[in-house]
Design goal:
Structural class of chain A: mainly beta
Structural class of chain B: mainly beta
Radius of gyration of chain B: 20 Å
Number of helices of chain A: 5
Strand content of chain A: over 45%
Order of helices and strands of chain B: HEEEEEEEEEEEEEEEHE
Number of helices of chain B: 2
Oligomer: heterodimer
Shape of chain A: globular
Shape of chain B: globular
Distance between the termini of chain B: 30 Å
Chain lengths: 770, 263
């Protein structure tokens, strides 16, 4: 035991270069939780009155550790939406102090106790990071009344929607697949239901969500543009509660409660749509199926004061069927087993074993023929993460991650199929990382780290090598053999310098790499979109991002302005050859071209954080381009997700104790698309002529939504609310698809047809909790 | 997949709506369009040379007269085509035979466009069989062309379908990479814009089966992908075997026909 401790200490010492003089100092550590439910709070801030520069934030498991010279201190603990707590402690020997914060329900009449430490934007070194407050999300208007984190983040600067009503998003010019979406650490490969109109995240089961736009700390890796880190609730440790909601499209129900009072808890949450019940009512569609469901479950068990295990899982499916003829279903399954351990008052360990599987199936049965498509992407993932709190100046995180991927591309089988050349491929991804959050001076905070990532192709297949889309070589790798390995070193640094009490400047640089690539030839995101790994032909994507930011708070931190600007250089970006076929071709890698990319932009957000009226205005001015040999004569061209202007105005107004009104307005430039520049005739049929890729624009998109929430007074423990909303208030027909065709009634003409979705979609949702 | 998207859209989102819009499209037309077909049927064969027009113009394509067109093959045939009418040029002596590789050369105003295409081996179209599929209360009728794919990989087929003499606009391109050496059982389902044009019992379906080479398959397969254009996929001009930026395709293929009355 002693040896283990000294080894750990030695490692940490080597890592940070801090001398063992730190032994003179004394550590206070513990956990911070919600007093009512026992839910551990992530990102709660612990401050010391006597040492203004000292301060730590609780980690994902509500743990903090702070080391100070011996003495008497006043500690202040704060967390958004909770009352601040102050406690005086005498530090002469290391001690454990746990906190239970009380929720601050109404912040209406100017509160005496400042409920939130509201200037985190000024003091933290994190760049391009947005935390989503689940309570704010709950009151925003949303399509079909299903509150959704993936839709709400699209209202933030630098995060853009990929299509009407959809959950696909693009961060700082990145593609949809360049976002790492984690649910309790498990990667979610397809975060959408019903072709993107709903996300796979049932808000009832969620505790916290944050998005980091390219400047993520070194413990995250594997995607170029962003990390969307979503954590499920642990469950109420004090009492049983039931929450639920009934909406026009879907209903939700969640049950949570203690397993052992104050120590362990569970939560089970489910959701299902019932659009198919309407189909049953219609004679034409009664044999058809169309629904999705989600199930989230989580349990945690406290072994002793220093050890806790968590088991969490997600299971979701979309099912679509037409009689007995056609059926398809797809969905994600994830499972995470975690063990938290406070090894030492300064050293926190988390070990996770993670499973993730995304699969889809298609079945066609007609007369004597049957035909199936099967595809899956399956991961096994082991993570070890340490947080080491050397002093109040340093918080060091280090660890490793080892992930095994199995990718089965759409595989055809059935009576019509004799052979299919696509085979399952396997790969192994490893990473080592270290990250230090360093409070250099009272004014300067630096977060710096390094991640070493390795991606190894595993044997069992023939790998073709292409150069500019032409086959040049072929390699057969036997099963069980390790093939090509790509090693990448990813340095990350961000610094915050506090100019004065109300303003700060930030600077950051980060390199990210990505070894899994999504092949999608459409904007909406289809369940059949394929993921491929880096191979002999496909190289890891690399992004280098530099960003500079400025934050200023006004009026006693009630108003906040953040400005960030970034430049991102991308390598090994993938696009398709002209007329590429990614579904039936034997080797899809032959249909790809690669090149470089660049993205730059300016992001502005102004927030009003307290009072009856709260909300924000966010605006992004940006450009994202690609330069790929073989496309547009090797010149720079707009990436599909390039949108010059993107504006969101979001407001919530508390009319009185019962009624809350909210509204939002969004405006954005249309996606870059390719329109015909001429036409001709081949074989008696009209064919459209195209020139440059993505040289045209969809019409600009804009929309306004309104919502009203009514919360009657709480009866004993029964709490309920009604939400009434209208999506697209002024009924604009925003173009979803523009297509070109021969005029059906006039063979001498061709025409352009616009398809618009969602004009005036109302919703009513009833939510309850007891 | 696009059809699946539409299906879902129409099933859930009854609120979606379509309308004709006026878009300011760029005009980069006026390019040379060449279409040449050589078949194993007796000649003459035709090569058409026209120019593309702007999207907003009527579907009339200006013929190119005065082009110099020569077709040769690897067995010593050489034919200089003569202008016929409407941009069409006609062969004189050329014979279309499978296994021969034909080279087309078209010279217009000093620029020469060339293409080479091998007429693949002939695969016998055995018969046509009716196929049907039920969507709820609705029944759709299709046709299965029966033929036995040769044992070696790399055979490509194209089908053109007529329903009561009306051309079906769909592109039907088959490769044998999933069913090499098997009897074909993949059906063809015609699709028309108007409900009243859909196939119903009593209708006569005529089918033309072509055995095509890989380049021609790639061309028509790309056309099938971008069918409708804009929005969902990134459209582009399909990759062609013609050089120098000419639009169109030069295809040497075998031709067989068959017909069936839907019951």
């Amino acid at each position: 035991m002693l040896i283990r401790k000294s080894i750990i200490l030695l490692i940490c010492t080597l890592l940070t270069g801090i001398s063992l003089l730190a032994q003179q100092n004394i550590t206070v550590s513990g956990t911070i939780k919600d007093d009512a439910t026992g839910e551990l709070l992530i990102g709660a801030v612990v401050r010391v009155n006597e040492v203004p520069s000292a301060g730590v934030v609780t980690n994902e498991y509500g743990f903090y550790s702070l080391t100070l010279p011996a003495g008497r201190y006043t500690l202040r603990v704060s967390y958004t939406g909770y009352k601040e707590q102050i406690q005086s402690i005498q530090l002469d020997q290391s001690k454990r102090v746990d906190w239970a914060l009380v929720e601050d329900r109404k912040v209406l009449d100017e509160v005496i106790v400042r409920s939130v430490k509201k200037n985190r934007n000024i003091t933290s070194a994190e760049m391009g990071t947005e935390n989503l407050d689940m309570k704010t999300i709950a009151k925003l208007p949303v399509l079909f009344g299903e509150k959704d984190v993936l839709k709400s983040i699209q209202l933030l600067p630098g995060v853009k929607s990929n299509g009407e009503g959809g959950t696909g998003f693009s961060v700082r010019g990145g593609a949809t697949d360049q976002n790492l979406i984690l649910l309790d650490e498990a990667p979610v490969y397809n975060a959408s239901h019903l072709l993107g109109f709903f996300s796979t995240f049932n808000s009832d089961a969620l505790k916290d969500a944050s998005i980091i736009k390219g400047n993520s700390p070194a413990q995250y890796g594997g995607r170029l543009s962003s990390v969307m880190d979503i954590k499920m609730k642990d469950g109420n440790k004090k009492d049983y509660t039931v929450t639920g909601g009934i909406g026009l499209i879907a209903s939700r129900l969640a049950v949570e409660g203690p397993i052992q009072k104050d120590k362990s808890s569970f939560i089970i949450s489910g959701r299902r749509t019932y659009a198919d019940l309407f189909l049953k009512a219609s004679e034409d569609y009664k044999d058809n199926k169309l629904y999705f469901y989600d199930l989230n479950a989580k349990a945690n068990y406290q072994i002793n004061k220093n050890n806790r295990v968590y088991l969490s899982g997600y299971f979701g499916r979309d099912v679509l069927g037409v009689g007995n003829t056609f059926g398809t279903n797809w969905g994600n399954t994830t499972a995470t087993l975690r063990w938290n351990s406070i090894l030492h008052r300064k050293l926190f360990s988390n070990t996770s074993l993670i499973y993730s599987n995304y699969k889809y199936q298609v079945q066609i049965q007609n007369n004597d023929n049957d035909f199936q498509i099967n595809s899956h992407i399956r991961d096994w993932n082991l993570k070890q993460d340490f947080s080491y709190y050397t002093s109040y100046r340093h918080t060091v995180r280090f660890g490793f991650q080892s992930m095994h991927h199995t990718l089965m591309p759409s595989k055809f089988s059935g009576s019509l199929i004799s052979s299919f050349p696509k085979t399952t491929r396997r790969s192994w991804e490893n990473a080592l990382y270290v990250n230090d959050d360093f409070k250099a001076t009272d004014k300067l905070t630096i977060q710096y780290g390094l991640r070493l990532s390795a991606f190894t192709v595993l044997g069992g297949d023939r790998f073709n090598v292409y150069k500019n889309g032409e086959l040049t070589d072929s390699v057969f790798l036997e099963k069980g053999k390790l093939g090509k390995t790509y090693l990448n070193l990813e340095p990350r640094i961000s610094a915050n310098y506090q100019l004065n009490d109300v303003s700060s400047v930030k600077l950051g640089y980060a390199r990210n790499t990505q070894n899994l690539h999504l092949l999608s030839n459409s904007t909406s995101g289809n369940p059949t979109d394929q993921w491929i790994g880096s191979s002999y032909s496909v190289k890891p994507e690399i992004a280098d991002q530099v960003s500079v930011g400025y934050s200023r708070n006004f009026d006693d931190d009630n108003y906040e302005i953040n400005v960030e600007t970034y430049y991102k250089a991308l390598q090994n970006q993938i696009d398709f050859k002209n007329g590429a076929d990614i579904n039936f071709t034997p080797d899809v890698e032959g249909e790809l071209l690669s090149g470089k990319g660049r993205a730059y932009g300016l992001e502005l957000i102004a927030k009003k954080k307290s009072g009856k009226l709260t909300g924000w205005v966010s605006y992004t001015l940006s450009k994202t381009e690609r330069k790929i040999d073989g496309i547009n004569n090797n010149r720079w061209y707009n990436a599909r997700q390039d949108k010059t202007h993107d504006l969101a105005v979001v407001g919530t107004y508390e009319l009185n104790q019962k009624w809350t009104l909210s509204g939002l307005f969004v405006y954005s430039t249309g996606n870059a698309v390719t329109y015909p520049t001429g036409k001709y005739k081949i074989n008696g049929q009209t064919v459209f002529q195209y020139s440059d890729r993505n040289a045209d624009r969809m019409p600009a998109y804009h929309r306004m939504d309104l919502n009203a929430t009514y919360e009657p007074a709480k009866k004993k423990r029964f709490h309920s609310s009604w939400s009434f909303g209208l999506y697209n208030v002024y009924g604009r027909q925003n173009a979803y698809i523009i297509s070109f065709e021969d005029h059906p009634d006039d063979p001498t003409r061709t025409r352009a047809i616009q398809t618009a979705l969602f004009r005036w979609v109302p919703n009513i949702t009833y939510n309850f909790k007891f | 997949m696009k059809r699946l998207v539409y299906l879902v859209m129409s099933m859930v989102l009854l609120s979606s709506c379509e309308k004709e819009i006026d878009l300011k499209l760029k005009d980069k037309s006026g390019d040379i369009v060449i279409e040449g077909n050589i078949t194993d049927l007796p000649g003459p064969y035709y090569v058409s040379v026209t120019r593309s027009v702007a999207f907003t113009e009527t579907n009339e394509y200006p013929p190119v007269t005065g082009a110099e067109i020569i077709i040769t093959d690897d067995f010593g045939q050489r034919d200089s085509l003569v202008y016929h009418a409407n941009g069409l040029y006609k062969t004189n002596t050329l014979m279309g035979l499978y296994g021969h590789t034909y080279t087309l050369s078209v010279t217009v105003e000093g620029t020469t466009y060339t293409a080479t295409c091998k007429m693949p081996q002939w695969v016998r179209l055995d018969s046509l069989k009716q196929d049907q599929i039920r969507f709820g209360t609705e029944v759709r009728y299709g046709v299965v062309p029966f033929y036995i794919d040769p044992p070696e990989l790399g055979n490509y087929y194209r089908f053109i379908q007529f329903v009561n003499g009306r051309r079906d606009k769909g592109y039907y391109n088959f490769s044998d990479n999933t069913n090499n050496g098997m009897v074909n059982t993949r059906p063809l389902y015609a699709s028309f814009e108007r409900e009243e044009d859909e196939v119903k019992p009593g209708d006569k379906i005529e089918l033309e089966m072509q055995c095509i080479d890989y380049a021609v398959y790639t061309y028509f397969n790309a056309l099938a992908q971008i069918e409708g254009g804009g929005g969902t996929t990134t459209p582009a001009n399909p990759p062609t075997n013609l050089s120098n930026g000419a639009l169109g395709i030069f295809s040497a293929h075998t031709v067989q026909t068959g017909s069936i009355i839907i019951e």
